[in-house]
Amino acid sequence: MPAWEMLNHEQHASLRVSRACDGQRHFAQIVADEFLQAAPYYPILFTKHPETGAFYAGVVMGLEPGQNLLTKEGVLADYRPADLERQGFYIAEGQLVVDRDHPVFVGPDGQPVFNIDGEAALPLKRVQHALHMLETGLPETDAVIGRLLEHRLLEPIDVSMSFDDGESLTLEGLYTISLDTLHALPDAAALDLFHRGDLQLAYAQTGSVRHLRTLGRRRNDRLADIGR
User: Fold this and answer.
1) Cβ(58)–Cβ(152) under 8 Å?
2) pLDDT tens-digit profile of 56-105?
3) What is d(CA 8, CA 114) in angstroms, rounded to the nearest whole number?
4) Contact, 64 vs 169, CB < 8 A?
5) Is the Cβ–Cβ distance between 129 and 17 less than 8 Å?
6) What is the spatial distance between Cα 89 and Cα 127, in angstroms, rounded to a whole number?
7) What is the dihedral of CA 133, 129, 67, 36, to 10 degrees?
8) How many CA atoms lie within 13 A of 138 on its CB side?
9) What are the domain boundaries of the chain?
10) How would you label 48-79 residue by residue, b for 16+ Cβ within 10 Å and e otherwise?
11) What is the Cα–Cα distance from 143 to 161, expressed in whole angstroms?
């Protein structure tokens, strides 16, 4: 069981939070409000919860579990999704709690959660903002996905890559928005999606798929570095 503790300055004055474990995250869930921030840097795709079968959206940062191809010295250089920002922190019964066993608290480069005066330091403020974004954004994103499914706009995407070392990888269980189906919608349906802001999200998502090529290049570059 996680070692959850209610966060407070008295007990956690020396607590430090590190971003180093980002390097082991190859996928992170995002909410609809993050699409426009994430799309310039990551492929945004949909997948299903293994337990419930419900769709959710996320950014792909690596092609294999445990490998983030977009970190530099273990840290993401660009937009950091809320799901990563809040690692180790949770809301339980309306209170902010921490899982002291989470690797985010054992990195050597951790930053203090609290200032000397006991006020929330910048890392904790980011955590609080991320948790709020997820709390409000998850139901909103479920509603967006529900409308996409209503119009049969999600379709499986074939992601198969070959690399300089002769290895091939296929990513399974990923979905994208079908632009063909979107463009074939009746005017009234398309107008409704436009007014709801869903069209903007759809084009951001489909445009972001090009970053899969970036991941492939990054993997080849790392293979070349290892071979030197």
Assistant:
1) no
2) 999 999 999 989 999 887 788 889 999 999 999 999 888 999 998 899 99
3) 9
4) yes
5) no
6) 7
7) 50
8) 9
9) 4-227
10) eeeeeeebbbbbbbbbeeebbbbbeeeebeeb
11) 33
Place of tokens 């890559």: 161
> Whole-prediction pTM value?
0.91
Structure tokens at 16: 């430090």
Q: Which two tokens stand for residue 69?
A: 């191809």
Residue with tokens 């890392």: 123
How many residues are listed for the chain in this entry?
A: 228
- Burial string for 162-198 (b: 16+ CB within 10 Å, else e) reads eeeeeeeeebeebbbbbeeebeebeeeebeebeeeeb
At residue 160, what are phi and psi to the nearest 5 degrees? -125, 130
Q: What DSSP designation does 62 have?
A: -
Q: Which residues pair with 112 in a beta bridge?
A: 16
